[in-house]
Specification:
A hairpin with a 4-residue loop joins strand 4 (116-128) and strand 5 (133-140). It contains 31 helices and 23 strands. 44% of the residues are buried. By secondary structure, the protein is α+β, with helices and mostly antiparallel strands.
C-alpha cells in the first residue's frame, strides 16, 4: 500500500491550487523561506568570515612561502612543530650560555638556495597628524613587492617607492585626518615623510600602521639619537624575513629542519598545509599537541535546537490558512470518492510543493543578501572574507530542512482536514469538536520534565541536556496553549464588544489560534533566551572589568621628575583642547627619604613609605593565604562575591599603581580631588581634609579610625642635597594618624587608597611634589580632540602625559539586543498577520450577521485589530517565560565552570549573574502587540458586502 495515496494527483492539485491562490501561496512560501534565508545567510557568513588555514597563512605571509626569524637563545640547535608556533631546545640539551645567547644568528644563511626574501621590522612612534599628534606603529617593509599581495592591499594612491615616502592603513589615515600627499613627521628625530597611499590588511581592517621602505625610519632615527642624547632612541622589534623559495619547490620540511640547526624558526606555508608525519618531527614526542577545532558551546547547541522548532512552528499557521481557504476544494475531493488519506495527501502535497519553493527561494535569497551586505559584514567583523565559502552539503541540508518543514507544518492541518465531513467542508460550517483533555496534562508533565532536564544539564555542565531540556520545555508549553487560549475567553465578560468577540473567537477556534500563538512564542522564546544570556554575560564582563580610572574622568600628570614647573602649561593644553568640564582638581605625590623614582638602580638606595594593613577580621582577606582554598570549597558564588567586594579583598585583587603613588597609593590633595575623581560628595570628608585629617577610602587599613603609616627615611649618597640636610643613618618612623573613613563602596577607587593634605605630609617629615590634575569629562573625546591635546602638550614642553579611562574598550551588547528585538518583532507581526487572515476567513459568516443586525462598519476593523493583539500579546508573554529556561540553564553551566576556577584560585571571580533584558522584553510585550493590532485594524476594510448566509 502506498504511504501517500494518489500522490501524483495530489501533487497536481497542490500545484494548481498554489498557482491559483497566489497571495496565500506567497505568504506560505515567505514564512518557510524566511527562516531558511536566515540560516543560509548565517552559514555563509560564518564559513566565509572564519578563515581557513590557507587564508590565515596568506594574512601572515602574503604570497611568500615562509617566514624565517631568530630566537633569543642564539645560534644553537632548535626543534619546532610544523605549525611554526611551538619551538624549543632539544630534550636533554644544555641551556645556552649568556655568551651563546649574545651571538647573532645568521638567518639569511638558512634560506634555501635560489630563494628571494624581504625584511620586516617595526617600531612604535609618535607622528604628526592634521589634528595634532597620534601614536602608531611604523613597519619597514617593501609593501609594493608582489610577495605581499593578499596580506597588504593598496586602496588609494601608490605604494612608497622612495625613502621619504610612507603608506598608511585606511583606519589610521581616517582618524588622523590625512589624505594622500600630506606630510607626516615622526616625533623625536623629526623625520618627515610624504603619505603616498592608503592600504588595508584584509585580515585586520582596524589596523593602525604606517609602512616605509627598509632603512628609511629606524636607522636614521638611531643615528639622530646617537648624536643627540635628548632624543629617545627607537625600540624596534626583532627582524623577520619573508622568503619566496625556488620556483616550484617552496620551503620544505627538510629546509625547516636545516634552519633549526642554525637556531632559526620557520613558518612554512607548504609544511603547515601538509605537515609531515610525527615520525619525521623530532619535537612531536615531547609536544602534547592541541586541537584547533572550535569548541561547540552550549549556547550554539541550544540555539540550533530551538531554531529548528521555531521554523516548524512559524510555517504551521500558514498552512492552517491554506487548509481553511481550501475546505470546499477538499470537500469536492471527498465527494468524488476520495478517502481521508487522499484528502490528507492533498494538504501534505501542498506542504511539499510550497516547502520546496520556499526552500529554494530562501537559499537563493540567503546567497543574494550575503553578497549584498558583504561589505557591511566585513566592516563589522573587521576582516575581509577570503572568498564566499560554500559548503554544498550544509546548503543542501538547509534546503532539505525547508522542504521537511513544509511537510511537517502541513501535517496538523492535513489531519484536521481528513477528519472533517464532506458536508462541513462543502457548506463551510465548522464542526464542533471537544478539546483533548489529555494534551494539557501531557504538556504540563513535559514542561516540568523539560525545565528539570535543562536545569540539571546546566548544573552538570551537559550541553546536550541543556539543549534537549529547553526544547522539551517549549514543547510542553505548546501542549498547554489550547487550555490557555480557552481561558482567555472567560476574561472578556466585562469588556466592550470588539475585544470580547476577539477573546471568545480565539477561545472557540483554538485550532487556528494555538498555532499562531505558538509561532509567536517560538520566535520570542529564542530572542529572549539569547538576549537574556547576552545581557547576563555583559553584566558579568562589566563586573570583571578593572578600570584604570574612575569613569568620566581624565588626568594630566608629570612625565618625569621635576616637571611640576611645566604643569600649568600642560593643564592649559588639556583645558583648551579636551572636552573637560569644571575646574581641575590638583593632586601631588608623596615619598620618604630619597625619591625611588630617581634612585632606583641600587638595592636599598631610596626611602620607603607604607600604609600598614592591620591583621584580623575585617582587615585580612580570607581568600588569600593559608586556608583560602578550603574556605573557597564552602562558598557559594554570592558569598564569594560579597567577600571579594569587601574592603579587605578589594585591595588584594586590584594591584594597579598610578598617579606617582607607588604601592602605598597615597595622593596629596583636597576636597576637589574627592569631588572630581573619587566622586565622594561628603561635606564631612571635605571638612576633615581642610582640618588636616586624611580621608581613607579603604576601611580595611583603619583600626579605631586610625591608620599606621610606616616610613623609612633613607637618603642615597648620590642625593647630595638631601643627604646634606639629613646626615647619619637611615631612620624608620611609625605614625598613628586619625583619619576620616569613607564608605566601603569607595574602597575600589582606581589608583588611590588615601587622600592626604599637604600640610599633614610635611608635618610627618615626608616630601611632597605637585604631580598633576584630575578633570571631569563632559563627553568622550574624539580622535581629533585627543590628537590636538597631545600636540598641545608637546608644544608645552612635552613633560606631561594624558591618562584617560579605558572604559571605551569594554564590549557593548546594545546592537545585538536591538537586532534580537527587531527579529522577534518582525516574526511576531508576521504570525499575528497570519492568524488575522485566518480569522477573517473563518469569521466571514459572523461578520455578515453583525452587519445584518446593524453593527457599525468600524466593528469589523476593530475586531481584526483585537484578534491580532490577542495572539501577539499571548505569544509574547508565553515566549518570554519559555525563553528563560535555556537562558537560566546556560548561565548555570557558566556558573559551574566559574565555581571550578574559583575553587582552584580563590581570588578568581565566580560571579555569574542572570539579568533580564527589560528593554527588549518591554519592546516585545508592549510595543509589538500594540503595533500588530494597529496595523491589522488599519489594513482591514470596514466595508462588507452583504451576502446570503451559508447553509
Amino acid at each position: 500500500m502506498s504511504p501517500l495515496p494518489g500522490r501524483r494527483a495530489a501533487f497536481r492539485i497542490a500545484r494548481r491550487d498554489a498557482a491559483r491562490a497566489k497571495g496565500r501561496s506567497a505568504l506560505v512560501v515567505a514564512m518557510i523561506a524566511l527562516p531558511v534565508l536566515g540560516v543560509t545567510a548565517a552559514d555563509l557568513t560564518y564559513r566565509s568570515a572564519l578563515p581557513t588555514k590557507a587564508e590565515e597563512l596568506t594574512a601572515e605571509l602574503g604570497s611568500a612561502d615562509a617566514r624565517f626569524m631568530s630566537t633569543s637563545v642564539g645560534p644553537v640547535k632548535l626543534q619546532q612543530m610544523p605549525d611554526g608556533v611551538n619551538w624549543g631546545m632539544p630534550e636533554g640539551a644544555p641551556d645556552p650560555t649568556p655568551e651563546e645567547q649574545a651571538k647573532p644568528v645568521d638567518v639569511p644563511a638558512a634560506f634555501p638556495e635560489g630563494s628571494r626574501h624581504l625584511t620586516e621590522r617595526s617600531v612604535p612612534a609618535s607622528v604628526t597628524t592634521r589634528h595634532g599628534i597620534a601614536d602608531t606603529e611604523i613597519s619597514e617593509l617593501r609593501v609594493a613587492d608582489p610577495m605581499l599581495r593578499g596580506r597588504i592591499e593598496l586602496t588609494d594612491g601608490a605604494f612608497p617607492r622612495k625613502p621619504d615616502e610612507v603608506a598608511g592603513t585606511a583606519d589610521f589615515v581616517r582618524a588622523a585626518g590625512l589624505s594622500v600627499g600630506d606630510r607626516v613627521t615622526v616625533r623625536g628625530p623629526e623625520q618627515t615623510y610624504t603619505l603616498t597611499g592608503t592600504v588595508e590588511l584584509p585580515a585586520d581592517l582596524r589596523a593602525d600602521h604606517l609602512y616605509a621602505l627598509p632603512g628609511a625610519v629606524i636607522d636614521p632615527w638611531q643615528k639622530t639619537a646617537d648624536g643627540d642624547r635628548t632624543i629617545l632612541p627607537p625600540q624596534p622589534s626583532d627582524p623577520k624575513w619573508l622568503v619566496k623559495g625556488p620556483a616550484g619547490a617552496g620551503v620544505t620540511w627538510q629546509d625547516v629542519l636545516a634552519a633549526n640547526e642554525r637556531g632559526v624558526v620557520v613558518k612554512s606555508r607548504q609544511v603547515a598545509l601538509d605537515p609531515p608525519p610525527d615520525s619525521e618531527v623530532p619535537m612531536a614526542s615531547t609536544s602534547s599537541g592541541y586541537s584547533t577545532e572550535p569548541e561547540t558551546t552550549a549556547a550554539v547547541l541550544t540555539v540550533a535546537a530551538m531554531a529548528v522548532l521555531e521554523i516548524v512552528l512559524l510555517a504551521g499557521p500558514a498552512f492552517a490558512v491554506g487548509a481553511r481557504r481550501s475546505r470546499r476544494q477538499l470537500g469536492l475531493v471527498g465527494s468524488c470518492g476520495g478517502n481521508r488519506g487522499q484528502v490528507r495527501a492533498v494538504v501534505l502535497a501542498g506542504g511539499a510543493v510550497l516547502g520546496g519553493v520556499g526552500a529554494v527561494a530562501g537559499v537563493a535569497a540567503g546567497f543574494a543578501l550575503t553578497a549584498l551586505f558583504r561589505p557591511m559584514i566585513e566592516d563589522y567583523t573587521g576582516s575581509r572574507f577570503g572568498e564566499l565559502t560554500v559548503r554544498p552539503w550544509e546548503i543542501l541540508a538547509i534546503a532539505a530542512l525547508g522542504l521537511v518543514t513544509g511537510v511537517l507544518a502541513a501535517l496538523a492541518p492535513a489531519i484536521v482536514a481528513g477528519r472533517q465531513s464532506v458536508l462541513e467542508s462543502l457548506t463551510g460550517r465548522r464542526g464542533t469538536r471537544r478539546s483533548s483533555r489529555l494534551l494539557p496534562v501531557i504538556g504540563v508533565i513535559t514542561l516540568t520534565a523539560g525545565v528539570g532536564v535543562a536545569v540539571y544539564g546546566g548544573v552538570a555542565g551537559d550541553t546536550v541536556l541543556v539543549a534537549g531540556g529547553s526544547v522539551l520545555a517549549e514543547l510542553g508549553v505548546l501542549g498547554c496553549i489550547p487550555v490557555i487560549v480557552g481561558f482567555l475567553g472567560r476574561l472578556g465578560r466585562r469588556l466592550p464588544l470588539a475585544p470580547r468577540m476577539a477573546l471568545r473567537d480565539a477561545a472557540r477556534n483554538r485550532g487556528r489560534t494555538a498555532p499562531a500563538v505558538a509561532a509567536v512564542m517560538a520566535a520570542v522564546a529564542g530572542s529572549v533566551a539569547i538576549a537574556t544570556y547576552t545581557s547576563s554575560s555583559a553584566v558579568e564582563a562589566a563586573y570583571d572589568f578593572e578600570p584604570n580610572m574612575t569613569p568620566g574622568t581624565v588626568a594630566v600628570a608629570a612625565s618625569d621628575i621635576g616637571a611640576d614647573a611645566e604643569l600649568p602649561r600642560s593643564r592649559a593644553a588639556v583645558e583648551q583642547n579636551y572636552p573637560v568640564s569644571g575646574k581641575p582638581a590638583d593632586f601631588g605625590r608623596v615619598w620618604a627619604g630619597s625619591d625611588c623614582s630617581v634612585y632606583y638602580e641600587e638595592e636599598n638606595g631610596c626611602g620607603t613609605l607604607e600604609l600598614v594593613k592591620p591583621t584580623g577580621k575585617g582587615h585580612s582577606c580570607a581568600l588569600k593565604g593559608a586556608g583560602a582554598r578550603e574556605l573557597a570549597l564552602r562558598l557559594s558564588a554570592d558569598e564569594h562575591k560579597r567577600m571579594m567586594n569587601s574592603p579587605a579583598c578589594v585591595d588584594e585583587s586590584s594591584t594597579m599603581v598610578a598617579f606617582g603613588t607607588g604601592e602605598h597609593k597615597i595622593v596629596i590633595g583636597g576636597a576637589d580631588v574627592l569631588a572630581t575623581y573619587v566622586k565622594l560628595d561628603d561635606p564631612a570628608a571635605a571638612k576633615a581634609l581642610a582640618d588636616g585629617t586624611p580621608v581613607l577610602l579603604n576601611s580595611a587599613y583603619a583600626k579605631n579610625d586610625e591608620v599606621t603609616l610606616k616610613a623609612t627615611h633613607l637618603y642615597n649618597d648620590r642625593d647630595e642635597k638631601m643627604r646634606a640636610l639629613h646626615p647619619g643613618k637611615a631612620r624608620t618612623t611609625t605614625d598613628r594618624l586619625k583619619v576620616y573613613v569613607a564608605p566601603d563602596r569607595f574602597a575600589a577607587t582606581p589608583g588611590i587608597r588615601m587622600v592626604m593634605p599637604r600640610e599633614t605630609a610635611e608635618r610627618l617629615g615626608l616630601h611632597v611634589e605637585d604631580y598633576g590634575s584630575f578633570y571631569a569629562l563632559g563627553r568622550d573625546a574624539t580622535d581629533a580632540e585627543a590628537q590636538a591635546t597631545y600636540a598641545a602638550i608637546d608644544q608645552a614642553g612635552n613633560r606631561a602625559y594624558l591618562m584617560s579611562s579605558n572604559e571605551r574598550f569594554r564590549t557593548q551588547d546594545d546592537t545585538i539586543l536591538l537586532i534580537l528585538a527587531l527579529f522577534a518583532g518582525v516574526v511576531t507581526l508576521g504570525a499575528a498577520a497570519i492568524t488575522t487572515g485566518l480569522s477573517k476567513a473563518d469569521a466571514e459568516a459572523d461578520l455578515t450577521t453583525l452587519s445584518a443586525v446593524g453593527a457599525p462598519p468600524g466593528v469589523r476593523r476593530s475586531l481584526s485589530g483585537f484578534q491580532c493583539l490577542v495572539v501577539a500579546l499571548t505569544g509574547v508573554l508565553l515566549g518570554t517565560a519559555a525563553g528563560l529556561v535555556p537562558a537560566v540553564a546556560l548561565r548555570l553551566t557558566d556558573l559551574r565552570a566559574a565555581l571550578a576556577e574559583m575553587r582552584a584560585d580563590p581570588m578568581q571571580s565566580a560571579y555569574t549573574p542572570i539579568v533580564m533584558p527589560w528593554e527588549t522584553i518591554g519592546l516585545l510585550a508592549l510595543v509589538v502587540p500594540v503595533l500588530a493590532g494597529l496595523l491589522a485594524a488599519a489594513l482591514t476594510s470596514s466595508r462588507l458586502t452583504l451576502a446570503r448566509r451559508a447553509g
